[in-house]
Amino acid sequence: MSSKSVNQYGSIYKDSFYIIWAELVENLKNVFRFLSVSSLFVGITGFFQTFTGYLLLGVPPNIQICSAVFLMAFGLYSLNKITDIKEDAINMPERVNFLRGRRNLAIAYSIVAYLLCILLTFLDNPSSIVVVFVPFIANALYGSRLIPGLPRLKDIPVMKNVIVAVSWALTTTLLPAAHIMSEKFTVALILYFMLVKAFVNTALYDVRDVKGDRENKIRTIPVIVGPKKTILILLAINATLLPLLIFLDNNARLLAASLIISGFACIFYFGMKKNPLAMDLFVDGEWMLTCVIFILLKIVRLLP
Q: Which has more confidence, 13 or 230?
């Protein structure tokens, strides 16, 4: 076979490889895009953030409770996407396309998911039921005018970030801590950790959505002070987690340190780049990625 023929076959093989690789990447993007717009991915985030809560508290993870938080996050965020269609039409048009013609179906499966969450939590610990209602109540109060003549919580700057952060922190800390509530200092420590992580992540999404929020007159932190100053604020807030490492032991310290470093990396990178799919994967997905790596290290016995 001549060298020319070899080069031709090599070129054909190379082109075929690139075509197959491009199709694989595109298919993976489509799968992840579906998980994102359908709220399944935020449900997965809830599962692994709760799983992380158990690990940080030094309690064996309860898959039933992690699954309950998956259902709660999936149901609540599906409902939110219905109410936030106006903003998403600018910031995330693919969400609007996904919901088109599926509004009633989305409402139905959101309610079913929340009811299943309540059932799973009740079967594990009836006294924990109040915790799973916190995000739902907070979400309802957020958009309601509690006192005539006063602004809604939704109209007060930063309140969205605070309410979302508090809801996530209480759920992913108090449910895992249900059987060790006597250890108040440890629970308070992890509660603060979860609160800061959730606040930083929600504010980082506001940086991405600043254009749509400005047009809809939603006063988020980036709208008020600008994206660049917001990034500096988030870096400072994330840095307040560093002293907490002193009070954690062994694997919990390593896990917390990984999440703090991940927080800094996401703030730096996504403060400059606006890639919705990558942001979902590495901001919401940091809990899953960190837990998977942690579990693999345990399996190969690189961690005690």
A: 230
150: left (phi over 0), alpha (psi -120 to 50) or beta: beta
**Cβ count near 189 (within 10 Å):** 19
Quick check: 197 and 52 in contact, CB under 8 A?
no
**Which stretches of the chain are assigned E, i.e. beta strand?**
none
What is the tens place of the pLDDT at every residue in 23-38? 776 777 777 677 777 7
- The DSSP code for 216 is T
Q: If we measure between CA atoms, which residue out of 294, 58, 52, 66 comes closest to residue 185? A: 58
Domains and CATH numbers, the chain: 38-299 (1.10.600.10)
pLDDT bracket for residue 13 (50, 70, 90)? low
pLDDT at 206: 87
- Torsion from C-alpha of 225, 257, 266, 22, nearest 10 degrees: -170
Count of CB atoms within 10 A of residue 121's CB? 26
Nearest-angstrom CA–CA distance, 210 and 280: 16
* Residues, the chain: 304
